[in-house]
Amino acid sequence: MRLSEADIDRVLEEDIRFGDLTVRALAIGEKPGRMVFTARRDLVLCGSDEASRLLSSLGASVIFAAQTGTCVEKGALLLEAEGTAAALHAGWKTAQTLMEWASGVATLTREIVAAARLVAPRIAVVCTRKAVPFTRQLSFKAIIAGGAECHRLGLFDTIMLFDEHRPFLTKPNDLNAIITKLKEYAPERAIMVEVTSEADAFGAAEAMAYVVQHEKFTPNILARVVLRRKRVDGRPVIAAAGGITAQNAGDHAKAGVDTLVTSALFYAKPVDIQVRISSL
Amino acid sequence: MRLSEADIDRVLEEDIRFGDLTVRALAIGEKPGRMVFTARRDLVLCGSDEASRLLSSLGASVIFAAQTGTCVEKGALLLEAEGTAAALHAGWKTAQTLMEWASGVATLTREIVAAARLVAPRIAVVCTRKAVPFTRQLSFKAIIAGGAECHRLGLFDTIMLFDEHRPFLTKPNDLNAIITKLKEYAPERAIMVEVTSEADAFGAAEAMAYVVQHEKFTPNILARVVLRRKRVDGRPVIAAAGGITAQNAGDHAKAGVDTLVTSALFYAKPVDIQVRISSL
Amino acid sequence: MRLSEADIDRVLEEDIRFGDLTVRALAIGEKPGRMVFTARRDLVLCGSDEASRLLSSLGASVIFAAQTGTCVEKGALLLEAEGTAAALHAGWKTAQTLMEWASGVATLTREIVAAARLVAPRIAVVCTRKAVPFTRQLSFKAIIAGGAECHRLGLFDTIMLFDEHRPFLTKPNDLNAIITKLKEYAPERAIMVEVTSEADAFGAAEAMAYVVQHEKFTPNILARVVLRRKRVDGRPVIAAAGGITAQNAGDHAKAGVDTLVTSALFYAKPVDIQVRISSL
Amino acid sequence: MRLSEADIDRVLEEDIRFGDLTVRALAIGEKPGRMVFTARRDLVLCGSDEASRLLSSLGASVIFAAQTGTCVEKGALLLEAEGTAAALHAGWKTAQTLMEWASGVATLTREIVAAARLVAPRIAVVCTRKAVPFTRQLSFKAIIAGGAECHRLGLFDTIMLFDEHRPFLTKPNDLNAIITKLKEYAPERAIMVEVTSEADAFGAAEAMAYVVQHEKFTPNILARVVLRRKRVDGRPVIAAAGGITAQNAGDHAKAGVDTLVTSALFYAKPVDIQVRISSL
Amino acid sequence: MRLSEADIDRVLEEDIRFGDLTVRALAIGEKPGRMVFTARRDLVLCGSDEASRLLSSLGASVIFAAQTGTCVEKGALLLEAEGTAAALHAGWKTAQTLMEWASGVATLTREIVAAARLVAPRIAVVCTRKAVPFTRQLSFKAIIAGGAECHRLGLFDTIMLFDEHRPFLTKPNDLNAIITKLKEYAPERAIMVEVTSEADAFGAAEAMAYVVQHEKFTPNILARVVLRRKRVDGRPVIAAAGGITAQNAGDHAKAGVDTLVTSALFYAKPVDIQVRISSL
Amino acid sequence: MRLSEADIDRVLEEDIRFGDLTVRALAIGEKPGRMVFTARRDLVLCGSDEASRLLSSLGASVIFAAQTGTCVEKGALLLEAEGTAAALHAGWKTAQTLMEWASGVATLTREIVAAARLVAPRIAVVCTRKAVPFTRQLSFKAIIAGGAECHRLGLFDTIMLFDEHRPFLTKPNDLNAIITKLKEYAPERAIMVEVTSEADAFGAAEAMAYVVQHEKFTPNILARVVLRRKRVDGRPVIAAAGGITAQNAGDHAKAGVDTLVTSALFYAKPVDIQVRISSL
Fold first, then answer.
1. Pick among F3, F152, F188, F231 to test the B interface (most B CBs inside 10 A)
2. Which of A25, B227, C168, F108 allows an S-S link to D85, with CB 3.0 to 4.6 Å?
3. CB contact under 8 A, C26 and D130
């Protein structure tokens, strides 16, 4: 996934719009130097390509950049660049913050995926649409780097029925009629339904929804749902959502669901990345 | 702080670029409805004006919006809007996510400020530049809503000497000469120095830096620094940075520092906001 | 579907960046007037909301605007606005061109949908990704206004296997293994496969692809595919693509396919809209 | 004519905003490959430079690109690129659609120009301002590539009197006074007048308009206008507009007019371009 | 001429991106107030509509705004707004600077136009393309407000032959052939030629250029050119360029030229506008 | 200070949006050539990097570019580029205007700084926020190139009390209370106060403002202020503002102030730069 030039510009501008006052005051801008980013802990890297692009656009030369999606150990070299003190200092914190944050998301993603797949090797982990405002593209990139996928990209790409749609329908409780209508409107698409009660879970399954997303069901109840409603052809896809974290991902996976849907990935803590700057 | 029209557009576009497929499929877009946002916990609100603007730009009418910066109790009404089902569904999650995230930052900020001011009523709490990429403006707004302020807005607005600048200087250890140079370059500005050792802390204070920022000093050592280096005119400003959280803010405040500098605010967990949608 | 403020700005700027030289030279800018848009033929309207927004942003008052998606007869009033001669002349051709073009797409869409549904009342008509560069959002809006839908919004929202992916796979001809891999990667999604031979059409159906898209199959062969490969549960969805037009949509529909996929909609001829400007 | 980086970004983003889900699911992104674009019919090429830029920005290497404006024969190589499967698939349809559409405009332009110049070797063919919304720059580029030119770029660059201006003037029928006023306002500019009646055509010529544009005059009447109103110094320039197509361009040219003004070019059908992708 | 929403946003962002720190520190943002802009000298106003738009977008109410293009006397009211102290202070300097600068351009323009027209009532004054970078649209607007016009909007809208084109031509000195070629290429357009010698001035006139622009000719020589080369039909248009200022505009006008071309307008000194802010 | 890609695009688009009509008409675009920029007077260069970037983005090769901030003598080579006639002509005036304008600002800045430092070698010269609309970033860059600095970047980065804030305060005349409040709000920041009377000047100094900015004080009175109010620790910083120019900078410097604050730099006349274009 490629961030646009405008986004690289924007992230740079947040920090260096009117230049680096300290470097100007110290009159060190023209001195040559090297900047090295290393992992302070085991992590899944994301953001190294954006960091490289922004350092290059500042005039620095990127000598090495580990690839997005790589699992690296504590101490590993992530990125190395050479350039003037002006270029290195201009890009330092922006590159560091971007990689720390994106790698934080990627690393937590990998943890949740690992926890779930330990129990259920083929389970899918997907994120919701609730990304931090303005970060959707970078968030999705980091989540994919961590081994998960996106559930819905926005309102535009999938059909998902929520309870909140129903007050506007003539027969809000006739799940069968509603799902049939959705399938006729869009025969090509996998109709998804979010349910908040066991009754609706069964109703949606009977109405042949492609995916039934169970909001805040306990693993026990989910196990029961899987047992009773999963047909022999593997349908419907049983998704569990609401409060999924690295801690409870395994329990949900054990229940036999196909997919874990989580917003937790967006709010991962950044991982620490060490930066050392030296003169040449 | 006012987000630009382009930013309101951008946050909307992240979710509704090609419209709302589900509402189209259900053919409910023209039905009138009401959407109500309430707090699921005590919180400091931020983002209600942006939420209002984006709902308005979708054609909904905002009937009530609590003000950014307000402390509200669990259950309180935050925002109420009326409009077509199309408008309400188009804005629902974007408005909710924006308010949940920004209010999360504001609420954590209030907690850290409260914890610090319980001990030291005049202490200042300020954030670093390490905002989540692309969110700097909204993050700063939320932090101010929570009662803290910004430390540096970017590289452009303040002079702060880091250890990382020194390799490029002829006499990297002569703090007095360096600070004198900075003060001459910019007589109007408050020169800030980040120090990582007690020796440099004392050197920076003697060289009459305006602010000495102590990176990862324990409260005990900070107390000693305050005792020994704070002059009768209140200078230098003693700032503590590195790992400040709601848990340890009080301890640092007790040490007598003037300012707490923290990145923790940017990574606050969102607070839950309930949304109910009804037909009219 | 809502165009952003930036897009309304952009379409205006294409025509009036440095103002209206003729109106300046005639010194008539302040005179009040009325502008009326009427249909020169039966048409499905699209673009009246964008036309209204651009006229409003020029300072004119929109008195009436028929709704996007409406079928109107020759002579019907589409949009009426009042304002200064400067505002009316500034918006005239831009509003007209936008409505003529978008309504052209909507009108052709309606024709193809009508032709297909005459034969097969539940058939779906969807457009490809081959919109005229820079017009994707407006094109999709017009197509939806005309009663069709979007097939794929881009590379990001759907999984569709093309022959062009196969050279990079280890076993390019093992459709079953490929489709199984895709389904495991994304259990929630409806896997689509484009096929260009009858053998692959059968292979994709047997591998339980959700949608099999038949590229340039004749109606006769399509009928055979439907007969032989459609299972009792209605799967797979049979889509016909490649050269679908208003002329041959009925023939394809008769073959019993579920979906017609076409690029023709994007290249519809604009429909004529008459504009009359008078002084007040 | 150079599209901005922002436009290259925009056209890419339309298709690959959140990446290529199919290539991710197939896990083939890193495989090296080649992509070759060839003409499926004789055509005038346009868009190869934009296609090259967008492929390069995706990380592919462009090995060959024929030049915009070139007439090529069926089967000719238009563009060849090498890169990862991820880069090639990300750019494939966007590059193809852009070249097909822009070359469609260029090719139709060449046909109309050829038809007109067969009869009148020095006749000029120019386009109106009625480009498809958002495509003006690329449309004009394609039209110039095809051998025609632009008539007006917008409201800002030329003075052209329409009937629609007249209601706001004190003496709407005094063409002589109106044209004199326009000439005094802008002595440097070539005053243009659109006329819809033979009486006005003569009035505009007598008032020494630089260009008289005849809206929907038949070739016969145009020939009479040329005969009676063209002065010995070649003035006024006689332009024919309204419904000019490749079919009737010759007839209009035969009438002796100087310029053909047409909107037909914008709505040209795309020309087919074949794309083949292979692994390396 | 209408600045885009994006431009209004941009000019605001230059000053208030992260809010108004002083107003926050004083905690006066919610207090109601009034802001009044008055002329400190006689001036031609420009920018009041942009100032109004930016104040409105900050939440203030504009009570009065004099119209762009108005000549006002010292002390006259230009703009009055009411709103919170936060809104008024956020817009104060931006609105003031914009009006001072744009009115400075408009006022100088009026002076040059007046000086020239005192001598030659029908002379045209036009500006070059050398606007201050990023200000072209606002500059042109101010120049038009001051009673002059634009010469060329850019490279795209006019044909003007410079000496700098000639090295690339086969017969660089054959002005007649060059101009004939240009006229054939674009029969509708007024061909312009910049000349730097009397010989070329005569050559261009003989070759029937529509406009001959005389670069840095003295008024005496210009008078001779007018006398010898102006034909009875008023052609060619004689333009004088290079170093035209308010001081020498009259002398050039006396020489009988049709048009004065100047870059001086872009670099006008801003005019002082007084701002008073009061509480309500 | 680095202009964004979007800004380079924007400045180019101002001039070449729809291409270069003259070069097209002459059919010389493909001819190779050289373009050389030299100083017509002694100047301080600014803008050569932006000129280089824009020429490169047009496809020309920059062979030499003198560095921003360099003092060059009349006749010196500033920039040299080779490329097609199309590329050179497309960039010519844009590159020239940008360098002439930015170098004009830098050169005047150098003059004012020199005039002030002749008298007071350590005095600081800083600019206000009143940049020409849309040029803030380039203006600041030019001012820094000329040896001065920025005073305030906007409302966001500094605390400065104006008389205009006081009507909203409970005790508008209690400078001591106001300044104390500001210092408590932001202990890290250097509080600045603008004063317009000697009484306030003394009040602000006594209240320990960090910077006291004296608006339109004569040098004589400033000398008295310095004498009476400057404490032994060098505080407060005494700034003089209002009407500072190259002519009177020395007088103000002689008064002993620390800082000169001026808006004059923004309105510098461009310096002449010669451009020669030759064929190769």
1. F188
2. C168
3. no
Closest residue to A188, CB basis, from C153, C186, C211: C211
Inter-chain residue contact F33 with E167, CB threshold 8 Å? yes
Chain C interface, best mutation among A152, A188, A238, A259, by max C CB count within 10 A: A188
pLDDT band at F2 (very low <50, low <70, confident <90, very high): confident
CB contact under 8 A, C1 and B9: no
Cβ-in-10-Å burial (0-12, 13-18, 19+) of B257 comes to buried
Q: Kindly determine whether residue D150 and residue F58, on different chains, have CB atoms separated by under 8 Å.
A: no
Residues 6+ apart with CB under 8 A from F218: none
Residue A278 pLDDT: 97
Pairs of residues, one from chain A and one from chain D, whose beta carbons lie less than 8 Å apart: 28
For residue B139 the two structure tokens come to 């993050």
Asked if pLDDT for residue B232 goes beyond 90, the answer is no
- pLDDT digit of tens for each residue in chain E (280 aa)? 889 989 999 999 999 989 999 999 999 999 999 999 999 999 999 999 999 999 999 999 999 999 999 999 999 999 999 999 999 999 999 999 999 999 999 999 999 999 999 999 999 999 999 999 999 999 999 999 999 999 999 999 999 999 999 999 999 999 999 999 999 999 999 999 999 999 999 999 999 999 999 999 999 999 999 988 888 888 899 999 999 999 999 999 999 999 999 999 999 999 999 999 999 9
In this complex, the residue of C100, C154, C158 whose CB is nearest that of residue D14 is C154
CA F93 to chain centre: 22
Q: Which residues of chain F make contact with D4, given a CB cutoff of 8 A?
A: 9, 12-13
pTM: 0.95
Reduce the secondary structure of chain C to three states and give it as a string: CCCCHHHHHHHHHHHHCCCCHHHHHHCCCCCEEEEEEEECCCEECCCHHHHHHHHHHCCCEEEEECCCCCEECCCCEEEEEEEEHHHHHHHHHHHHHHHHHHHHHHHHHHHHHHHHHHHCCCCEEEECCCCCCCCHHHHHHHHHHCCCEECCCCCCCCCEECHHHHHHCCCCCCHHHHHHHHHHHCCCCCCEEEECCHHHHHHHHHCCCCEEEEECCCHHHHHHHHHHHCCCCCCCEEEEECCCCCCCHHHHHHCCCCEEEECHHHHCCCCCEEEEEEEC
Contact check, Cβ <8 Å, D153/E157: yes
Whether B190 and F192 lie within 8 Å, measured CB to CB: no
Contacting residues for D154 by C-beta, under 8 A, at least 6 apart? C14, C15, C16, C17, C18, D129
Q: Is the separation of the CB atoms in B259 and B234 below 8 Å?
A: no
Q: What is the dihedral of CA A51, A56, A62, A68, to 10 degrees?
A: 30
Amino acid at B30: E
State which amino acid sits at residue B226: V
Residue of B nearest to F141 (CA): B156
ipTM: 0.95
Using an 8 Å CB-CB cutoff, list chain D residues near A137. Answer: 17-18
Among B226, B227, B221, CA closest to B242: B221
Selecting from F12, F18, F90 the residue whose C-beta is nearest the C-beta of D137 gives F18
Residue in F closest to B154 by C-alpha = F157
The residue in chain D having the minimum alpha-carbon distance to the alpha carbon of residue E258 is D187
Pick from F98, F159, F168: which is nearest to E21 by CB? F159
Residue-wise pLDDT tens digits, F136-170: 999 999 999 999 999 999 999 999 999 999 999 99
Tens-digit pLDDT profile for residues B247-276: 999 999 999 999 999 999 999 999 999 999
Which residues on chain F are in Cβ contact (under 8 Å) with E154?
A: 14-18
Out of C2, C144, C153, name the one closest to residue B16 (CB): C2
